[in-house]
Amino acid sequence: MLFPLSPPSPDHVRLSLRPLTLSDEARFRAVIFDLDGTLLHSVPSLTRVLNALFAEEGLAPLDEAQVCAMVGEGAGLLVARAYGARAVGSGTPEDPGHSGRVARFMACYGADPVSGATLYPGAAETLQHMAGRGVRLGLCTNKPEGPTRALLEAFALAPLLGAVIAGDTLPWRKPDPRPLLATLERLDVPPGEVLFVGDSAIDVACARNAGVPVVVLAHGYRQGPVEALGADRAFQGFDDLMPWLAKVAPGDRA
Ligand SMILES: O=C(O)COP(=O)(O)O
């Protein structure tokens, strides 16, 4: 089961408020964010692009709930899963037609990754407040670097981020720890002083592999209940994350 695609149900809110493990006494000098499902609601834009390609090929469109379940492990797996859902190809990157499909997707998505994408409420304000207090901020996403940079510029986040590692910046993607470790190295902060904020099992696994504490936002893309992700703490969205971040990452200009 996948949630939330619409305003959270009371049950979902209750689940996300269960006691979790990361203490309020923790202190961090840097915070690294995931992009899709954490800062950015990108599924409408990804669905638009996939369905434009599908229309050209006479394939039935996907809905946003289906695409939500396919996002988080990079453009290649998204495209493989999307075509696989229409019985085109094997649903894996090993399929002979895969690289052509990814190239067509990237041409179309790269031309306009912004239309249909929105920042989650409070995302920009949270990053602005933290950057203003001297907290070092980074981004670690599996989305390819071209559209990632275009989105960060379009939503005015680029100047707030001291490090950006995208899905094709390095030869490895999350859940491999190296993209996250590279992000904190570029921020010049050791793993114990960094918090990762994500939304998915991939994010939690990456953080665990890197030895970095991780919290998740329940507004993002995942399958199953938020506490099943095994993060150190979960928040509904930026409304409840922001006051907690102000405590645990006060910044050196506070
Ligand atoms: O899978 C993607 O393309 C992006 O995913 P992420 O920003 O959640 O890492």
TrEMBL record:
Native organism taxonomy: Bacteria, Pseudomonadati, Pseudomonadota, Alphaproteobacteria, Rhodospirillales
Record: residues binding Mg(2+): D34, D36, D199
Reactions performed catalytically: 2-phosphoglycolate + H2O = glycolate + phosphate
Keyword annotations from UniProtKB, A to Z: Carbohydrate metabolism, Hydrolase, Magnesium, Metal-binding
EC number annotated for this UniProt entry: 3.1.3.18
Pfam families documented for this protein: Hydrolase (PF00702)
UniProt GO cellular component terms: cytosol
Listed name of the protein: Phosphoglycolate phosphatase
Pathway per the UniProt entry: Organic acid metabolism; glycolate biosynthesis; glycolate from 2-phosphoglycolate: step 1/1
Co-factor requirement: Mg(2+)
InterPro entries from the UniProt entry: HAD-like_hydrolase_sf, HAD-like_sf, HAD-SF_hydro_IA, HAD_sf, PGP-like_dom2, PGPase_prok
Organism: Pararhodospirillum photometricum DSM 122
Known role: Specifically catalyzes the dephosphorylation of 2-phosphoglycolate. Is involved in the dissimilation of the intracellular 2-phosphoglycolate formed during the DNA repair of 3'-phosphoglycolate ends, a major class of DNA lesions induced by oxidative stress.
Positions of the catalytic residues: D34
Enzyme category, top tier: hydrolase
Family as reported in the entry's similarity comment: Belongs to the HAD-like hydrolase superfamily. CbbY/CbbZ/Gph/YieH family.
Protein's UniProt keywords contain Transmembrane helix: no
One annotated GO molecular function: phosphoglycolate phosphatase activity
Keyword Cell membrane: no
GO biological process entries: carbohydrate metabolic process; DNA repair; glycolate biosynthetic process
Origin superkingdom: Bacteria
